[in-house]
Amino acid sequence: VQLQAFGGGLVQPGGSLRLSCAASGFTFGNYAMSWVRQAPGKGFERVSTINPSGGSTYYANSVKGRFTISRDNAKNTLYLQMNSLVPEDTAVYYCTSPGSRGQGTLVTVSS
Length: 111
Description:
The protein is mainly beta.
């Protein structure tokens, strides 16, 4: 299983970023996928989850209404659209499949 997240960077408060995660080594369309994050000095937080078909999603209260998870099973790719970013969203973001977590991408929200 390989999961590679990318798309992070430095963004000002109120800005937007779109994260992507390229998956390989397993049948992507058969599994629920999640984004988790780890802020500096803190533990992991599950941000969002999407079911295999993309028809059902979960969001943490801290991101509800601002983040949107989606997936393209034909491209084996998971996405996270992040809008109205706030400094508290600063973290390393990882995509996960059951039992696996890939390399993360750093998102920094700062003016």
